[in-house]
Prior knowledge:
The structure is a single chain. Helix content is 68%, strand content 0%. The protein is mostly helical. It has four helices and no strands. It has one domain (2-85).
Amino acid sequence: MKILKNKLLIKGLMYDAIGMVTMAIPLVGPFLDIVWAPYAANKMAEMYPGKKGKIASVLVFIEELLPFTDVIPTFTLMWFYTFVWNKAPKENEFVIEAEVV
């Protein structure tokens, strides 16, 4: 699990960097975003399967198409949401409920 987490973080940082670089290219950058947005959305859905991944892929698609939003690290934020901020029990964890008498 730890290896998967690290690989997802590294991939996410790379995809965020690529998305930000397109903003730095004058005149051509906005047109590159038109190509990059669907690719980034597809990669987000592949990296994070399920309902959360689909929602994140829509958000990354919109973020890449809107002007001046390329600085938002969507992939990295999704990684933090999935592995740091999300308090839901994990797949291999179980919760024992005890009744206090």
